[in-house]
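Render this sequence as a predicted structure.
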Amino acid sequence: MTLTKSKITISILLVFLTVLIGTSIGSVYISFEKIISIFLNHLFGVKLHENINLGEIAIILRIRFPRVLIGMMIGGMISISGAAIQSILNNPLASPYTLGVSSGASLGVAMIIVLNISIPLFGAFLIPITGFLSSLLVVIIIIFITKKIDPNFNNQTIILIGVVSSLFVNGILTLLIAVSGDDLKSIIFWQMGSLSLKGYDTFLILLPFCIIGTLILILLNKELDALSFGDEKAKSLGVNSKKVRIMIIIVSSLLSGSAIAMTGIIGFIGLVAPHVVRRIYGAKHQILLPMSFLFGGIFLVISDLIARTIVSPSELPVGSVTALIGAPFFAFVFFYKKR
């Protein structure tokens, strides 16, 4: 228990270090000392370090920190979704993308862009709500088809139907892009995945989705523990495996669908981070889920840092960086599992 507490403490310190690194490095380097001084002044009115200028304050508070904050949240939302989906499907290679969540969210946002839809009632929440609802629709179709084909709701059947449905939705999305005309550039840029031009407004829009979804998954940690032992064991412990699976798939759609809708497709976070956390902390979901959230955030912030600095002053899509890291990792997990 003491060892686990030490690991958790180190992980939390790693989050703070990642935030400092993410806000420090860029086209203009700002030291940790200055960053801490700026935050202390902004939060508690402590006198600023004498060498700090207004430009550095603006860079930290208006550009870099909100971007890091959003990266932590987006990475966490996708990662905790991946951890839950891997658990209910008993498959370390499963992720929100396996179940067509990313395809559904992409199609929904593309339709918003192409059709120029605006609903005043939803306001700024239109895009994340659309991402969630469109990904949820795809997931509902997957659940419906799976129940028709396999009433026992077998894990492999869910994955197979999910992959096929994802390919089908991607086909519709490709067709939509082909006929989109002037909106083509906007859709393609969005699909690449990026945290650029994201401010505190994006953070506040996603915050309710993040809090609700994360809390529900953490509250279901005992059910997830039971499911990891198989359906028969879960049933003997009083867990309705079918109902819990459906609930977790829906909540995962809420988290990853709304996140993807705001930032575009950022792959492999939901695969890499949960797998690393399992290796460090074990499979107990009371710890696995919150730690997956933290490590997912760290992974995305570091990937975004690479994306915006490696070819500076230009910027790479962060989705390309996570793919370059995640694809070899995916291959390693796949072949390691087969050994």
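Summary. The domain at 2-338 is CATH 1.10.3470.10 (ABC transporter involved in vitamin B12 uptake, BtuC). The chain has one domain: 2-338.
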